[in-house]
Design brief:
Keywords: FAD, Flavoprotein, Oxidoreductase. The protein is of the alpha+beta class. It has ten helices and twelve strands. A five-stranded antiparallel beta sheet has the order 1-2-7-3-4. A five-stranded antiparallel beta sheet has the order 11-10-9-8-12. The relative contact order is 0.14. The structure holds flavin-adenine dinucleotide (FAD). Flavin-adenine dinucleotide (FAD) binds next to α4, α5, α6 and β7.
Length: 244
């Protein structure tokens, strides 16, 4: 997209630690070089990180998905991208490596500003560690774009647990609503410990206003993005279902 004009290009594709998808304890370890297209077909991702699989068909087009990598998308951290926001919704940790060794950064601390992440100069993103979803988890993904494959005007995903008839530990992450992917903590607080009836969903939609701070841009006024985000959240909450 001509955002960068690097003098040196380093090909990461021969680093074996950045490849492959495997269960590691309670987490699914997704190598940074995993292609977008693999998130649609890899059985471990479908089983244990279903929100990522649900988002994948919305990322660009097949040609892009065959080349683009999950790590590349999360390293770039475009605030309009699906996968970075889903890392936030899933509570993933980023495995970052440099000359001084390896460290893991929770998604809540990783996205810092527009295209700015916790990756320091001299470091690379090696893998994503996603807490494996189980039978108690429910999730939903949706986005609104002018045309399928375009960057979304607004989008989001939810991962939560169903505890009896109520929602527990919800994580809601939206994209295209600010300079980073955004966690909707006020909306989460409205649904935690409650059954998702019409009143609760309406309260979460109202609370969302305090979670997001969209900017006006040439295509979409901020007020419209706020409205679309509220509508999207209602859709997501109504379609939350078992995802694993
Ligand atoms: C026409 C088009 C449409 C698109 N539509 C969408 C869309 O709808 N939704 C969406 O989410 N994305 C979309 N994308 C983006 C695309 O899906 C890729 O995620 C993105 O281009 C990154 O590609 P890449 O993995 O090849 O990374 P690169 O382009 O190679 O890298 C992106 C940036 O991250 C850095 N980087 C890459 N890997 C690492 C790493 N492991 N560690 C540290 N830094 C790293 C690079 O240095 C560079 O700065 C679109 C792209 C195009 C060209």
């Amino acid at each position: 997209m001509r955002l960068q004009a690097p003098q040196v290009l380093i090909d990461l594709s021969a680093i074996p630690e950045m490849r492959g998808v495997r269960l590691a304890g309670e987490n699914l370890r997704i190598g940074a070089l995993t292609r977008h297209a693999e998130t649609l077909t890899e059985p471990l991702i479908r089983a244990y990180a279903p929100l990522l699989a649900a988002a994948a068909p919305f990322v660009a087009h097949p040609a892009i998905r065959n080349r683009g990598t999950v790590g590349g998308s999360v390293a770039l951290a475009d605030p309009a991208s699906e996968f970075p926001a889903m890392m936030l919704a899933m509570g993933a940790e980023m495995e970052i490596s440099g000359a001084d060794g390896m460290r893991r950064v929770p998604a809540d601390d990783y996205f810092q500003d527009l295209y700015q992440t916790a990756i320091e100069p001299g470091e690379i993103l090696v893998a994503l560690h996603v807490p494996a979803a189980g039978p108690r988890h429910v999730c939903a993904f949706d986005e609104m774009a002018r045309r399928r494959g375009d960057y979304a005007m607004v989008g989001g995903g939810i991962l939560a647990e169903r505890d009896g008839g109520v929602i527990a530990n919800p994580r809601i992450a939206l994209f295209s609503v600010g300079s980073t992917p955004v966690r909707a903590r006020n909306a989460e607080a409205e649904i935690a410990g409650k059954a998702l009836d019409a009143d609760t969903i309406a309260a979460a939609q109202r609370a969302l206003d305090a979670d997001i701070d969209p900017l006006d841009d040439a295509e979409i006024p901020a007020a419209m993005r706020r409205h679309l985000a509220r509508v999207l959240l209602g859709r997501l909450l109504r379609k939350l279902e078992t995802c694993s």
